[in-house]
Amino acid sequence: MKLTGIGASEGVAVGPAFVPATGNPEPERDRITEAEVQTELQKFKEAVEAVAANLSETGDRLRAAGSEGEAAIFDFHVEMAEDPELASAVEERIGNLESPEAAVLAVGEEYAAQYAAMDDEYLAARADDVRDVTGQISAQLMGRGASAFEALKTPSVVLAHSLAPSDTARIQRGMALGFVTAEGSKTSHVSIMARSMGIPAVVGVGPELEDILAAKTVAVDGGEGYAIADPDADTVAEFERMSGVLAEERAALDEYRHIEASTSEGRRIEVAANLGSASEAEDALEWGAEGVGLFRTEFLFMERVDLPSEDEQYEAYSAVARAFGEKPVIVRTLDVGGDKDLPGVDQADEDNPFLGWRGIRMSLDTPELFKPQLRAILRAAANGNLKVMFPMVADVGELEAAKETLQECRRELESEGVETGEVETGVMIETPAAALHAAQLAEESAFFSIGTNDLVQYTLAADRGNERLRRLQNADHPAVLALIQRTCEAASAAGIPVGVCGEAAGEPELIPKLVELGVTELSMAAPQIPRAKKVVSEL
Amino acid sequence: MAEKETTVGPEEGIHGRPAARFVKAAKGFSSQVVVVKGDREVNAKSVLKITGLARKGEKVTIRAEGEDAEQAVETLAELIAADEH
Lengths: 539, 85
Prior knowledge:
The complex is a heterodimer of chains A (539) and B (85).
Chain A: E1 2-4, E2 6-9, E3 12-18, H1 37-64, H2 68-81, H3 84-95, H4 100-116, H5 121-141, E4 156-160, H6 165-168, E5 176-181, H7 189-197, E6 201-203, E7 217-221, E8 226-229, H8 233-253, E9 270-275, H9 281-287, E10 292-296, H10 298-301, H11 310-324, E11 328-332, H12 359-365, H13 367-380, E12 385-390, H14 396-415, E13 424-429, H15 432-436, H16 438-443, E14 447-450, H17 452-459, H18 478-494, E15 498-500, H19 511-517, E16 521-524, H20 529-537
Parallel strand pairs in A: 3-4, 4-5, 5-6, 9-10, 9-16, 10-11, 11-12, 12-13, 13-14, 14-15, 15-16
Antiparallel strand pairs in A: 1-8, 2-6, 3-7, 7-8
Helix pairs in contact in A: 1-2, 1-3, 1-5, 2-5, 3-4, 4-5, 11-13, 12-14, 13-14
Chain B: E1 2-7, H1 16-27, E2 32-37, E3 40-43, H2 47-50, E4 59-65, H3 69-81
Antiparallel strand pairs in B: 1-4, 2-3, 2-4
Helix pairs in contact in B: 1-3
């Protein structure tokens, strides 16, 4: 059986299917006997300790990798697992001859129902947290391991409805050969992570995923965007052959990883990586990144229960800055809108979130969000070569206001006696307005970076998530190229560098055009770097 | 016994990270500590109980009984009032 979806990360793989257990386990027993009470009380205590230890270990690992926001979720889960009120309620039920695995689920459900009834979207999410943690304790009691991914012990293709950062954080390195998910787009967490790890992924296959969950073997082609359940011998052989070819191609590209790419005319083109979190820095350097052309900060703010503090952001930005040393790292300020919820920010539902209150528009309206981010960037700049970039800019006024806020933050930090570093400020060129207005923006900018994904969507008026409009999701359109050209001309006249950090930057067919138009830096998913350097050196 | 009234600081009320940090701090005291909001009184060392207890700007009282009661109410009242995440 073949399922088609969105090819979110290139490569092919074939291997055993792994389906992480979802939802809470069914208790094996409802009741116990009087004679079992003492032993079961002891077992419950041990299960709580094991689950708490496992959760805090995952939290420590995330923290060490610079993912403070994700780690904080685990701190909260540890406290829930060790909750004294949870323990006493469960112990009382065990005393009444209820089995511990049933008791802990029942108590968890009581709290979950309470939170869910409170008419507060954040508390509703806490209901899922309680069910998650009590489910883990119950599973542990039945000897099933605390995490759905603990059972992933042989390299496999992971099939899941969707995958959150807390899920992927639990997958041991090398154990995922590929991902197939029912939900998701090219910009989902799982897609970005798969690209940074060089693992094939097909996302958004839809509810048909259910039909292949029982498969023993799955073949996945993350370039073409399809997966085959229980492929026949010929198909397996073909996938193994393709995988061999790709591995050879990759090996042949190894020599390009750490070169400084120049065209035959001697034009030097910097090739950098797009990063979604600090934990990807090391991989990116191994792929040969000469810097970070786009450090997305959204992930610090997503899938968590509260906003990241200035200190937490400082740690995350510093981790990337330190990893890259003198190499430049461009930090893009928060770019979210009505399509993603932000804890603690009142976002009205919008009919057109991509044309809505997002990016710099939101930042300028919410200094309580914007200033801690800018302060964190200024402080972290003391640890490396950071630059700051503003997204969704449509006119010079926005850029001036953002720079003014940055100056204000710097003055505040200086008067507080806090160490800061120099940061250049640049603009992300992703609205047609910014491209058309590039000459004026260039006077106020130290660099440009063209975000082709959004520039294509806005120029061609084609929703980037709409599968039917695939024909128009194309940076190789004369109208888009004309805007890129205009941007490059303005940058060149002002003597500032211009990069491209959208998908187009990593596409071998487009790189020659971009370089010809005057682009000086290309930034992409790290595994694409060696190929891009090769393409540039052959120009 | 010691008690102190304070106002909830965190934007999204008490849960998630602020709740985890609060409970962790509460567990550091040997005293019995409760958080009182209106006619509800909950164990300050239980993250499940204090989650959703109060929203930003609402008044709660920290009450403690034991050797380090004074210090517990001071520290915890300050922690719950902090709006820094």
